[in-house]
Write the structure tokens for this entry.
Amino acid sequence: MNLSRRNPRIYFVIRDYLDRALRRATYEKLSDGTYVGEVPGLRGVIATATTLEACRDLLGEVVEEWALVRVSRGLSVPAIDGVKLAVVSK
């Protein structure tokens, strides 16, 4: 789905949320040489990959999908640095 064509404002809010979440991310190299990344405060958001770069990329996808699923189900999404995601009825 290309959100930027449907509503550019929605795209930029989600992009801002994702960027702020990834700035909070922590990464660890495991004993088997793989990497694990997570975002403190976003329960269940975790990614693993064979390289740090791949782990960062995958974690970005996980954060985006996690947030969109929560919003679509009417579940709360924690604000990050003042950026909130929610469905607003008109």
